[in-house]
Amino acid sequence: MMYRHLVWVSCLIASGVAQSQATRWIEVEDGSMMIPAFNLTVDDIDGMSLYDSTGEIVGEVDDVLIGEDGTSMAASLDIGGFLSMGERDVVVPLDSLTMGENGLITTMDREGLESLPEYED
User: Fold this and answer.
1) pTM of the predicted model over 0.90
2) What values do phi and psi take at 73, rounded to 5?
3) 116 in helix, strand or coil?
4) Euclidean distance between CA atoms 96 and 39, whole angstroms
5) Which CATH superfamily is domain 2-114 in?
6) How far apart are alpha carbons 19 and 47 in whole angstroms?
7) Based on C-alpha coordinates, what's the Rg of the chain?
8) DSSP assignment of 50-113, as one string?
9) Distance of CA 8 to CAs 5, 11, 12, 13, 89, Å?
10) Strands 88-93 and 73-79
């Protein structure tokens, strides 16, 4: 039963990530815009650390994005690299992230994030 739940969650996240790669994104410039899912502003989320489910830092929020349709939101994440060298940006839907004690949490691991297509802003 637990395995079936994990497969379902993985498929749900993968479909959201696939959608995020097909959407044309626009950077949110209004830092005071509220992100209802987190009850935080864009400025609050910008630069926030991203953790995997084990508590390891796997990236950082580079930008908050909104879809051309005006309804979907995502985060551009800096992943990989060391001391800002070799980093690349990927996009994940905001609704696939949760708020943790010290930052945002993703269910994807480092390898999963690194396998996402690079986002050119």
Assistant:
1) no
2) -130, 150
3) coil
4) 15
5) PRC-barrel domain (2.30.30.240)
6) 23
7) 14
8) EE-TTS-EEEEEEEEEEETTSS-EEEEEEESSBTTBS-EEEEEEGGG-EE-SSSEE-SS-HHHH
9) 5, 5, 6, 9, 26
10) antiparallel
Residue 10: CB atoms within 10 A of its CB come to 13
87: Cβ contacts below 8 Å, ≥ 6 apart:
78, 79, 80, 81
The two structure tokens encoding residue 66: 């909104």
- pLDDT tens digits along 20-79: 456 799 999 999 999 988 999 999 999 999 999 889 999 999 999 999 988 899 999 999
